[in-house]
What does this fold into?
Amino acid sequence: MIDLHTGKITINFYVFWKNYCNLFLKNDLIILYNSMDRLTARNLTRAKRQTQICKVFEIKIDRSHLSKQVQQSLNNLFIETKWFYNYCLSHNKINDANCMITNVPVKVKDEFENRDFAILQTQHRQAIKDRIFNSLKMLSTKKKQGHKVGKLKFKSQVNSIPLRELGGKGHTGTYRIDFEKQRITLAGIKFKWLKVKGLNQIPKESEIANAVLIKKGQDFYLNITAYQDKEIKIVPNASIGIDFGCESQLTFSNGIKINFQVPESDRLKRLSHKLSKNKNSENSKKKNQLKLKRQKEYLHLTDKRKDIKNKIVNAITKSYKYVSFQDESIHAWAMSGKGKSIQYSGIGGIISDLKNKSHTPLQVDKFFPSTQLCPQCGNKYKLSQSERTYNCPKCGYTNDRDVKSAICIETEGLKQIPLDGRDYKAQESPTSGFFDTLTAVNGIKVIKLDSVNVESRSNAVRHRPNYWKII
Ligand SMILES: [Zn+2]
It folds into this structure.
């Protein structure tokens, strides 16, 4: 059959063969063949990926079910990864680094000792080498763009290991997943099943690509990349403006305000204090224990912030098609002494998420005078820091300071929608639904200003194209 076909078909056959037989390529000859058509394979995958969306799911390995021995093996896997990474970097040409090597020189104090790989597999090593190649490629691209770039440095700690191949029937791969029993295996850990949490996040019909094993504190996670067919998002044809501030972190043009902060917990402060007291002590075991505890508490707080951020962004992007916000200069805020309040709320993360996840993000210039402008007559009036209500001296317009800013931002943002947008049919999407979604989020305070809400906003946006319905 193949004889009759052209070379191209043969290449496609090879792609088929690689994808479906999932053979691991050890032989030099096959690797040569591989590099010849890598481009074709990549282009095919790229074309397919355009119709898909990529999501990363974080799966946690349940530490309570791990034996001491397995925990030690997992830790060693990270140490051996570090050895191999540094071994690769010690070559002038990374390609000279041998993936089949069984032991590498490791620097111990001032001397080098040879250490054997007990856990790290050839597949791992190949993936680590590829990762270094990718980093170098990225650096060279940046250099070409005129950025100042440094060199890759030797690492004293490695916290992530790429796992490229998912095992399946008749093929072990670098990791395997058992969805039914909620467990995974990793190559090198003698294929012992490890209990995990969070596998049910991954939709059944998605195609699992690769994974990264991650160490955070004492815990191990598996970040699994999965591709799904693109879903068509149905977002209500509605618009909202958002003002970011320090008093109320988020104020919406429909009069809803959100307050939230996840400050340093007392436990974190206590641990930091203890650690600083133990700074010069000889007891390094105690010091390490404290460090681990502090790291864990810190991660806990970060997760809490992330969770709140994701829920807020999700509520906004699902309820509103047009999201207007000002590209705030977080840096300027931090300089003005509001650094802590930004850090505790993670506003920077919300802004960048809105840019990426909104159906139509409408970014307003950071120099747009949203606090000064009167939305009704266009007059500029500068409020003092303490004035919470905006009273326009020219036309008598009055509104809450932040709500007014949000309205100005919304109006300004909507100017970016071209006129052929007039075909849109605006739908009513009740504010109450949005309000209810937000109040369901744990750890935030939601207020709704009723008295200044609807009427002033509909006045404010009078000069907006008439197809806009105000909600
Ligand atoms: Zn006015």
Summary: The radius of gyration is 28 Å. Residues 1-17, 19-33, 422-429, 459-471 have pLDDT under 50 and may be disordered. Residues 27 and 33 are 10 Å apart (CA to CA). DSSP finds eleven helices and 17 strands in the chain.
